[in-house]
Specification:
Largest sheet: 6 strands, parallel
Strand content: 5-15%
Structural class: alpha/beta
Number of strands: 8
Strand order of the largest sheet: 3-2-1-6-7-8
Number of helices: 12
Helix content: 40-55%
Order of helices and strands: HEHHHHHEHEEEHEHEHEHH
Amino acid sequence: MAALGWLTPRRRSATARSVLAGEASAEAARKSVPETADEEPQFPVFGDDKAAAFFDLDNTVMQGAALFHFGRGLYKRKFFETRDLARFAWQQAWFRLAGVEDPEHMQEARDSALSIVKGHRVSELQSIGEEIYDEYMAERIWPGTRGLAQAHLDAGQKVWLVTAAPVEIAQVIARRLGLTGALGTVAESVDGVYTGKLVGEPLHGPAKAEAVRALAAAEGLDLSRCAAYSDSHNDIPMLSLVGHPYAINPDTKLRKHARQLDWRLRDYRTGRKAAKVGIPAAAGVGAVAGGTAAAIALSRRRR
């Protein structure tokens, strides 16, 4: 029988190379199986009709302040004089350089706008708003933020702008971006004509949070499944309402707050200066130059 030993397969010990080959094969097989337990949940969740998204407008969806761009369009249409444009320019320069919404400057801008539209028909301003969007706003929409909004729309969710800008402007922007609608500051009108007063107060800070809360209740939304996006620490009340808060192009205070609470951050600006002051560096230079030029022109006019 010993002579037949060559016919019997021999049991050989595994070599180091064969062990390595086996382990590599097992690892490759394991990686080919989709992971589920440790995978980050899909967001936004497709078909979740209890969820929605709320986007701040100024410096979140669009570069700069919507009210300023609207003012430029009204100036072009002879709604007010050069000295008023200079004031708008300084307010916009401050807003873009500081990267925050200063209450005093925001109040001045609102007062200016209310005085300008007083006596005009709401329908007239809505029609002009469509033109002004094309002239000054369309090219200032942040593509990154627009993409985030579209992701919610693609998931079958409603998307709302929430802004201190006049609701008529906000509704134009929302419509042109294909969003669901907008919450904004409401100017009083009687028989379709602006009176120059506000209904209540500007939709700013805590007022935004109250508007979102009220809309969520009316729409039957679960705020823990909703998302909110903003650049400003003034909107922390709104961001804190939802289960998915995002800091977009955040100012210094919001960035710090977001990091402390592990909120998600997205910054679509470029350059080191943008990280410091909250604006694109080139845009900041342009804002200063524009404000300076306006001040010089105003000074010469007064001499």
